Amino acid sequence: PHKDLVISPTAPLLECNRKRCPTCRDKCRYYCRQCLVPRGPATPPTLPPLPWTYDVFKHNQERKGKSTALHVKVLCPNESNVWTYPQDVERYTAQADPEKTLVLYPSARAQPISAIDPSSFTHIVVLDGTWYQAHQMARDTPLLQDSRVRHVSFASPPQTKFWRHQQKGGDHLATIEAMWWLVREFMVAHRPSEDYHRYDDLLWYFTFTYQRI
Length: 213
Description:
Strand order of the largest sheet: 4-3-7-5-8-6
Largest sheet: 6 strands, parallel
CATH architecture: 3-Layer(aba) Sandwich
Strand content: 15-25%
Organism: Catenaria anguillulae PL171
Subcellular location: Nucleus
CATH class: Alpha Beta
Radius of gyration: 17 Å
Protein name: tRNA-uridine aminocarboxypropyltransferase 1
Helix content: 10-25%
Structural class: alpha/beta
Catalytic activity: a uridine in tRNA + S-adenosyl-L-methionine = a 3-[(3S)-3-amino-3-carboxypropyl]uridine in tRNA + S-methyl-5'-thioadenosine + H(+)
Number of strands: 8
Number of helices: 6
Distance between the termini: 12 Å
Number of domains: 1
Order of helices and strands: EEEHEHEEEHHEHH
GO biological process, one term: tRNA processing
């Protein structure tokens, strides 16, 4: 969907049929939305380790079937976590280091990733929900209002390829698009000698769904 992507073949996903997850018994096709692990014959591509850990705050009113953010946990299980808002906020706050945490949110104090020392953070919080829900999470989560938690936004976001109606226009990305693009801007700014296409497979499931619609 996005120009110049280098994506592993998605054809194996065509062989997946709906069946029950052997762990939770939920019906799934490509991955289990409860266990967040691949299911079926299609094995996801192996990505290199992400430059940080993504902590997804998923609003409890956002259906898992709509969420593209869950893709990151399936594709990068060692560098991502999914936390349900508001149930998990207190538990997350207890273990978080505000000085090492960023939140991807376009507030007035947000900076581009190029302006942030890459050694100064280890975790990036991503808010998964509608625009209103994301605003609610940013506003009502004390940790995210802590001045030590820096806000990061995009220098030049691409136009979204998300297939659902966008309330805020084409430069408001689907959550997995946003996570992929932030990594790309980071690589261009801080690791220019490395190939940022190594992380394009963050959009592996997204690209497959886009092509099917």
